[in-house]
Amino acid sequence: MGRHLSLAGQVSGGPACYIAGMKILQHLAELPALVGHEVAVSDWITITQEQVNLFAQATGDHQWIHVDVEKAKAGPFGAPIAHGFLTLSLIPKFFQTSIEILNSRMGVNYGLNKVRFTAPVPVGSRLRGRMKLLACEAIENNGLQMTWLVTVEREGSDRPVCIAESLSRRYP
Q1: What CATH number has the domain bearing residue 133?
Q2: 6: which strand partners?
Q3: Nearest CA among 166, 172, 113 for reference residue 144
Q4: Is the pLDDT score of 8 beyond 50?
């Protein structure tokens, strides 16, 4: 994992945009001040054909564009591509490699508001997630509900491959 940084190590004058490494927050109470800011950028993840095949097995989506390597080479993208939902399912991993909230016992995925698959992900691509906190609301049991704009980038491309509003809840 990357370097560990805390909010105390950021540039003065409010929350900074991305600084390389894991973003560590001491308490949930630090999150509301980050609304409107890009909070973190994840590590890169390489998409393999094995991941695509296993995802196809798990979901029953065996469309040739994903799993038939030879046919996909002659297809519209020149290679097999990852399922859009495989890309989307990496969001928890992006959070895991970029943000840690200490003094928080539990976090849960609460759902999605919007999802768009804006570009294909050829097998062998490296992806990462950029997390911008859009909203942060108090919920029962002293928890917080957060709305994150997650932009999934493909290395070497100026166009994101997925844009999603992800809802999560955290509890102290």
Answers
A1: 3.10.129.10
A2: 24
A3: 172
A4: no
82 phi and psi, to 5 degrees? -70, 150
Which residue segment(s) compose the domain that 32 sits in? 4-47+82-171
Q: What is the pTM of this model?
A: 0.85
Beta bridge partners of 24: 6, 100
Structure confidence by residue, pLDDT tens digits, 132-148: 999 999 999 999 999 99
Question: Residue 58 domain-assigned?
Answer: no
Rounded Cα distance, 172 and 170, in Å: 7
Phi then psi for 136, rounded to 5 degrees? -150, 115
Q: Is residue 63 part of a domain?
A: no
Alpha helix positions (H), 12-114: 49-59, 64-67, 69-73, 84-89, 91-96
Number of domains in the chain: 1
Q: In the prediction, which pLDDT does 10 show?
A: 36
